[in-house]
Amino acid sequence: MTTVSKDTIRVGILHSLTGTMALSERPLVDAALMAIEEINAAGGLFGCAIAPEIRDGASDADRFVEMTQQLIEVERVETIFGCWTSLSRKAVIPIVEKHNILLWYPVQYEGLEESSCVFYTGLCPNQQVQPALNWLMGQGRRRFYFVGSDYVFPRIVYKIIRGQLDNSQAAIVGVDFFPLGASDFSATVANINRVQPDAIFNTLNGDSNLAFYAQCAAAGIDAEQMPIMAVSISEVELQRIGVAATGHYACWRYFQSLDLPSNQRFVAKFKQRYGAIALPVTRLKRPTHRCISGGGPQLLPEP
């Protein structure tokens, strides 16, 4: 437990630093720490310094619950920035609601949920999934193969896509779900080559994407003929996937190449702090930074 003064506001940062989701979540901790450093350098929040308490969710929902309890009951944090998968978010909601602690959730999610103790900053399917599917159909793609991780968000997205396609002259020609952390997609890749869809809709999460794209490339799946549209990977994963991602698509709320002065300043600051060869600034690093920078009044409990 960190010793801090009474003029310090404790905040929890809870992401997966180990396990299959660490590739995606670890950079969010970097963005959160940078935002906190900037706030403290500017005099803090209402005259108080912000003290981060970092915990590892370890890509496991039960671990997220344990760490949430520790942050709230032992570290006495005022708020928590964290979670990625809907599985981890749903697991910790009863804890934050019990203690009336606000969770800032940075990821796109399936909707169909409302909690007064969760600040949802990500996109809903009507803002991400449906436009991506409409764009593919606008390119003449009509036959889709769906691949996803086996938990809440991908399964809800599949139902939404299936309903959307029911009202159009398009169809799903194959669907496969995999446990988080899966790395063997040989049967699915073989089936994709057999049915020859017009596009592959990908909701795999974490480092499973590294294996999936590599195996698709090795099997000769061509991005021009059968492009992959991903809605759960960012520039961090794409950098690691490498040439196997060439020609495929990703639909996100943010990319670091966004040509706006405010974004260019943010990217420059991030690289100055973490180095020019740091992992790319992803669509969640920027929103995570904004949450902490702009959420000041909500960090303090009501009197």
Report on this structure.
Helix 1 (22-41) runs parallel beside helix 10 (285-294), helix 2 (61-74) runs parallel beside helix 3 and helix 7 packs across helix 8 (235-241). It contains eleven helices and ten strands. The chain folds into two domains: 8-122 and 258-299, Rossmann fold (3-Layer(aba) Sandwich); 126-250, Response regulator (Rossmann fold, 3-Layer(aba) Sandwich), CATH 3.40.50. It is of the alpha/beta class and 303 residues long. It starts with 7 loop residues before the first strand and ends with a helix.
Which characteristics define this entry?
single chain; alpha/beta; Rossmann fold; 2 domains; 10 strands; globular
Global geometry: globular
Highest CATH level, the class of the largest domain: Alpha Beta
The end-to-end distance, rounded to whole angstroms, is 25 Å
**CATH architecture heading of the largest domain:** 3-Layer(aba) Sandwich
**How much of the polypeptide forms β-strand, as a percent range?**
15-25%
Count structural domains.
2
Strands, total number = 10
The H/E string reads: EHEHEHEEHEHEHEHEHEHHH
CATH-derived topology of the largest domain: Rossmann fold
Helix content: 40-55%
CATH superfamily of the largest domain: Response regulator
List segments where confidence is low: pLDDT < 50 over at least 5 consecutive residues.
281-287, 296-303
Please identify the structural class as seen in this structure: alpha/beta
Q: What's the rounded overall pLDDT mean?
A: 88
Widest sheet, order of strands = 2-1-3-4-5
Number of helices: 11
